[in-house]
């Protein structure tokens, strides 16, 4: 009995034979291409024809790669941006601190040089805070009576006068600035020696010379120094510069506005000058004890005169009695 498949289902050459044939063809093509470079044109044509297909096949891969790169670069840029901002803030703070330290160092050097040059004893102080009264120009320093300070001592910096101590406690003191409305300081023009009094409070941060004659020899830019006539400030300390002069035709006086030369609101380190004027008491203070002494003397003289008149009257009474007895 024949069990072979019908002719309709015959498969022709076997799979093994086809594999051997195709392998032989491939080896032959490889050898020919390696020897004679015969397949170059075929490869170029195939690459040109298949290039659009390769592009289309690679689109999903390129899209995924682009999305991944974008996400990764966004995270990296955000991290770098945050780090750069933090570094910029730190560098800015460091620069500000360095600038402040340099400014304080320069000021301390100037104050130290001023301390060495000054013949009057001085005490270094630092500003703690501004006074609580918003309508007054006052500050509080970290030195008090335990350091030998008292009310009336001038306060200066390396450029000039800041103000004077007006209230003292054991460990801190209150300093009234030159620009306060209740402050007045005798000054003298360096250029010609003209004396006047500078008052504070007329304009914010400025001083003014009031009731100056319109013909007074004053010029814009003149330097004013302490005259020392009040016995509070030593003479020769820079106070202010003239910045504006108002002269009106209908009045005999002029208004002179000055700007302090010292850093009234600029520094934290100051010097307190322990200045003792050594001036004699003022005439008004001398007249009071003299008047009291003269009053006591006049009262004593009146009392003595009254006592003498009383003794004389007592002595005259017995004489009158003896004169009247014989008549009886």
Structure write-up:
The chain has 328 residues and is of the alpha+beta class. The protein has a domain at 122-273: Beta Barrel (Thrombin, subunit H), CATH 2.40.10.350. It has three helices and twelve strands, in the order ααββββββββββββα. The longest helix has 78 residues, at 40-117. The protein starts with 14 loop residues before the first helix and ends with a helix. The model is unreliable at 317-328 (pLDDT under 50).
Summarize the structure.
With 328 residues, this protein is an alpha+beta fold. 43% of the residues lie in helices and 23% in strands.
CATH class of the domain at 122-273: Mainly Beta
Major sheet summary line = 6 strands, antiparallel, barrel
CATH level-two architecture of the domain at 122-273: Beta Barrel
The global form is rod-shaped
* Structure summary, number of beta strands: 12
Mean pLDDT: 78
Amount of beta strand: 15-25%
SSE inventory with pairings:
Elements: H1 15-36, H2 40-117, E1 122-130, E2 138-141, E3 154-156, E4 161-168, E5 173-177, E6 184-189, E7 195-200, E8 207-213, E9 223-226, E10 238-247, E11 253-260, E12 269-273, H3 283-324
Antiparallel strand pairs: 1-2, 1-12, 2-5, 3-4, 3-12, 4-5, 6-7, 6-9, 7-8, 8-11, 9-10, 10-11
């Amino acid at each position: 009995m024949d069990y072979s498949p019908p002719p309709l289902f015959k498969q022709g050459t076997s799979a093994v034979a086809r594999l051997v044939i195709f392998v032989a063809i491939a080896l032959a093509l490889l050898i020919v291409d390696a020897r004679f470079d015969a397949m170059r044109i075929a490869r170029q044509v195939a690459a040109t024809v298949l290039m659009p297909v390769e592009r289309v096949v690679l689109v999903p891969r390129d899209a995924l790669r682009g999305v991944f790169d974008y996400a990764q670069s966004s995270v990296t840029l955000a991290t770098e941006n945050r780090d750069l901002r933090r570094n910029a803030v730190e560098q800015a703070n460091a620069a500000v601190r360095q600038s402040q330290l340099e400014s304080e160092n320069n000021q301390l050097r100037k104050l130290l040089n001023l301390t060495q040059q000054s013949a009057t004893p001085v005490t270094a102080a630092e500003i703690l805070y501004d006074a609580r009264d918003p309508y007054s120009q006052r500050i509080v320093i970290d030195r008090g009576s335990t350091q030998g300070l008292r009310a009336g001592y001038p306060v200066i910096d390396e450029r000039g006068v800041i103000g004077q101590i007006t209230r003292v406690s054991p460990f801190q003191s209150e300093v009234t600035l030159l620009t306060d409305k209740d402050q007045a300081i005798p000054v003298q023009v360096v250029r010609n020696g003209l004396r006047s009094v500078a008052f504070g409070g007329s304009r914010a941060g400025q001083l003014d010379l009031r009731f100056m004659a319109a013909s007074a020899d004053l010029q814009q830019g003149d330097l004013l120094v302490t005259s020392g006539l009040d016995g509070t400030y030593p003479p020769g300390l820079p106070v202010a510069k003239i910045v504006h002069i108002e002269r009106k035709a209908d009045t005999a006086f002029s208004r002179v506005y000055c700007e302090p030369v010292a850093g009234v609101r600029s520094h934290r380190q100051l010097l307190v000058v322990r200045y003792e004027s050594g001036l004699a008491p003022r005439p008004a203070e001398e007249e009071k004890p003299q008047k009291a002494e003269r009053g006591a003397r006049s009262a004593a003289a009146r009392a003595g005169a009254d006592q003498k008149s009383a003794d004389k009257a007592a002595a005259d009474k017995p004489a009158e009695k003896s004169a009247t007895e014989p008549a009886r």
